[in-house]
Amino acid sequence: MVGTHEIIQQEQASFDRSQINEHLASQEAQSTLASLGVDASELQARVAHITPDELKQFNEEVDHIAGGDVHVFAVMVFILILMIVLDRLGTVDFYPDIPSVEYETD
Question: Which of 4, 12, 15, 84 has its Cα between 20 and 30 A from that of 54?
Answer without folding.
Answer: 4
